[in-house]
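LOG
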Amino acid sequence: MAVARYRDRHSMARKKSDHVDAMTLANILRTDAHAHRTLPVDSDLARAITVFARAAQDAIWRRTKATQELRALLREYYPGFLSAFAGTGHTNLAMADARAILAIAPTPAQGARLTKARIATALRRAGRQRRLEDTATRIQNALCAPQLRQPPLVEQAMGCQAIALLATLNTECVNAENLNESAAEAFRNHPDYAVITSFPGLGEATGARVLAEIGDDRGRFADARGLKSFAGAAPVTRASGRTISITHRHVKNNRLAAVGFVWAFAAIPRPGPIKDHYTRRRTHGDRHAAALRNVFNRLLGQLYHCLHTGQTYDASKAFPGSIHDAEPAAA
């Protein structure tokens, strides 16, 4: 986008030319190099963590896509299977139990013929160790319950399609698990591991993703505000005359913004200053997503400070004057 704006300096026709593009890039470096950030000088370990963390995130996104495609297909011809694993919420087809049962019974006709012993065997092979009999009974009852059916030939064809989607889902589940383990192992060897994981809501998986996007080059961001803008945590202020608008930042590092949402969401359930800060933002009028971005903004600034000073997270310093740090009143 930035290069496209530079292209208008040399041609207003908006035509595409490799020669003009090459000249535009050369002139950017010749005249405006001082206005652009240099590439970060990250360590080899940080770059390796970036590869692992981004690959793991891509595998998780592909796993989610495969799960949604499989759920949409099962809804058309096998609703009893979805109800068997729905529980109290949406069906999690990525869980090992659901994938194991679908592999041996991809159609409603096959599911209705499953015995409790065979279901228990499949669950055991999938790794389940507790409540095998109760779970097998519940699944058998759900699969045998009356449900809407497709014609037998169509049902069989959809079962073959479900097996194909299941193979993709199995592959992405394994990839996500292996890549997350590799990212966590590399992250544990990084000097910033102790500082990053000291923050509430940051574990090995999310911490590796945060480090992968911000790197370990301390000179990459001039201040915490630059890091917040890079992550999309800081809003955009537009002022024209007497009109001032403050809006959500859309141009950002999408990977860092995604893990920041998870980070803030994982940090607010526990009672403490972070939870109080989130509650204040909601009381102020922010919606859930806006309040989480504000929490992410606050935590990201604290992380920037801790990484530059080598300190671990301290709630009393991060949120001074919190009611949780106040001394009890004398009797």
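LOG (cont.) second protein
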Amino acid sequence: MKNSALKNAFSSLYRNEDWWAVWLGFALLGLSSAYLLLWVPKVGKWVLNPSTAISISDIPYIVAFWLFLLLVTSIPVAFMKNSLKKYLVGFPIIFALSLVSLFIASQEYINYLGLEYVLWALIIGLFISNMIELPEWLKASIRTEMFIKIGLVLLGAEILFGKLLAAGAFGLFEITVSLFAVWYFCYYLAVKLGLNKSFAAIMASATSICGVSAAIAAGGAVKGDPKEISYTVSLVLLFSIPLLVVMPFIARVTGIPDAVAGAWIGGTIDTTPAVVAAGALYSDKAMKVASIIKMSQNIMIGITAFILAVYWTLKVEGKRDEKPRPIEIWYRFPKFVLGFIIASVISSFLLIPTLGSQANAIINQTKVIRSWFFAMAFVCIGLNTNFKDFVKIGRGKPLFVFAAATFLDIVLSLISAYIFFGGVLFPSPL
């Protein structure tokens, strides 16, 4: 019995998607640290002439990177015993659509408006999935969670503890106040309206923490339905766009101080690119504060995922006549979140102290690679989402719950932002 359990535990290291996200994320971080991925292409800015974004000389590097990603991502597909042949056929389409999304978002005016590549990737995927019936060979290449989990491990290297401390303890206090209130409200309302508990937990985590990343982490902790995760992710992105425009406008009209506006934006909008864009639309200081608050929320991903894994195993699925095994907590814990945390520790306490300013070049390179993985992930989310399914899921109840929780988050985040960053009760830390 013990030998069987040990064998299963060992096999999970190469058959579990979470572990593959960790291995590949660390491998890419290691290659970047050794300056072996400096050739990875980055789509440049352009105004009217698209050739300034991608020149003829860039094409060989784009093709090489496509082949590199195809090789790297095919390894876990093969080990997890999925259809490798179909994946190899469909992956070039996913990569090409991701390139298109990065290209559109690099247009200077579009970039100025804050319409990030993740939005275009989602729109492209949604357009295709709602216009035509996807062939089976393309469906086999839709690996949303694998792409986004690898991207999240790489994101961990960008979340430095020093930046979090720059906002002091006040930033954490602001996040904590909103997090618990919004999470419980969203979860309670969803369950009251008849939605299942796992779906409620996924939406609650998305609205209270940091949207897409939290939804994926929570979904892994509670073993949620992939369609519910995709639905929540789509809601996060669709809500982020109007908030990106409306919140800076309201802040400007009402004369909200820069630090307060940044804390409000960072605590409310659920996607990191949209947070940075919205903050930048207001002021440079607002952008910096918003980014710090959002990174603080990102750190809460691991804590929330662990708490959810514990609660789900011991309370939600625990039976009175059957005591849950503590090891189930480990089985449920999303391993890619562990990779996310370790990547942050490596970056904060190894790369920066030993390499100094050179570490910034490494982190900037991992950002480029992460953007490709995120672009592919959001293309896949769009391809895997059909608007007809939106109507079927909960008869519109999830949309109402998400909207109500978002409104509460807007109000509480504004109050918290004034308390901790507006000098109401304490001197502003920034």
